[in-house]
Amino acid sequence: MPINQPSNQIRLTNVSLVRMKKGKKRYEIACYKNKVLEWRSGVETDLDNVLQVPSVFLSVSKGQTAPTQDLAKSFGAKTPVNDIILEILNKGELQVGEKERHAQLERVHNEVVDTVAGKLVDPKSKRVYTTGMIEKALDQLSTQGAHHQHDAKGTPNASGTATPTTAEENGDTKGKGKELPTWTGVVTTKSAKSQALDAMKALIAHQPIPIARARMRLRITCPNSILKQAAKAAPKKGGGHDDEEGSEEKAKGTVKDRILGYIEQVESQDVLGEEWEVFGFVEPGAFKGLGEFVGGETKGRGRVEVLDMAVIHEGDS
Length: 317
Prior knowledge:
By secondary structure, the chain is of the alpha+beta class. Helix content is 38%, strand content 20%. It has helices at residues 35-41, 68-75, 81-91, 98-119, 131-153, 192-206, 224-227, 244-250, 255-262, 284-298, and strands at 16-22, 25-31, 57-59, 64-65, 93-95, 120-121, 165-166, 181-182, 212-213, 215-223, 265-272, 275-282, 303-311. A 4-stranded antiparallel sheet has the order 11-12-10-13. It is elongated and about 75 Å long.
């Protein structure tokens, strides 16, 4: 005699599960592989391309859909099923297999390395490093960071994957001001963009190879009437706070002198009518201070315009 499958059972295969526990119940939705991350990053915007079936399950593997009364208790009686699905999709825990996890980690790793390679250069030649050289440098830092983390904590990361950390977290606090950032590899729980920033900070701090941020190319304009005026504010390159007497001494000089002081290399400068215009290259760390100085001294009449976020020289060294 054939056994009838319950009406609330749906069999699905080759899926990525997203789980959420709510109101003492665990709920699941069935998604297409790799589509959940695309949805969360904004690459995919069509929900139909993400969900295998627009239903909420108690168990996808058993094909058991969640009863309406359970959903009402957990999410509220007036909450539409579509809103419940979106909440699980956006906030739930993504379940991935070993192969998929490895592929995801590799994608993030490659994106981090590509981003870093495009923004850091050899400080002498101003040429970019190959992704292979960046990868070797990060591997070196990762090995060092893992050793430091093991020495300080004595236990590996619970996820089994590496994480960016700091010398403070590694127990290396000697009262010498800011701790140097360290790097122990990529994870899948943080965006590639934020991890690339962590990697750049660690590379610049530890210098496994001679490396620096690529300079920014800017266009700065300022009214001629202000150029020869004495600067009222001291440049804020270092971010420190001196006493009043020191600050007054540093503030000496014209507005033009102070603007040129921020620029590492002047490309060209000219006077156009009532405005002075200068093109030049600036270290990324000086950009914020330059913008604040120009805005404050000119009361909004001067401008700092970014023409290129990272100027690099390509070709053979």
